[in-house]
Amino acid sequence: ECAWCRILKQQGLAFPATFWRDEQHRRFEIRATALKAMEKSDGG
């Protein structure tokens, strides 16, 4: 279980276990990480 899974679960946005074993999970992680980086560079 990655950090993003835990964050989503804390916010009540848990996805099915199959989703997290999927390629989508990695893509989601990459996108989420990119968003975090953009927020930082944006001064937010």
- Shape, per Cα inertia axes: flat
β-strand number:
0
Structural class: mainly alpha
Distance between the termini: 27 Å
Average per-residue pLDDT, rounded, comes to 74
What features would you describe in this structure?
This protein has 44 residues and is mainly alpha-helical. It has one domain (3-41). The protein contains three helices and no strands. The chain has helices at residues 3-10, 17-21, 23-41.
Keywords:
44 residues, mainly alpha, 3 helices
Write the SSE topology:
Layout: H1 3-10, H2 17-21, H3 23-41
What is the compact description of this entry?
With 44 residues, this protein is mainly α.
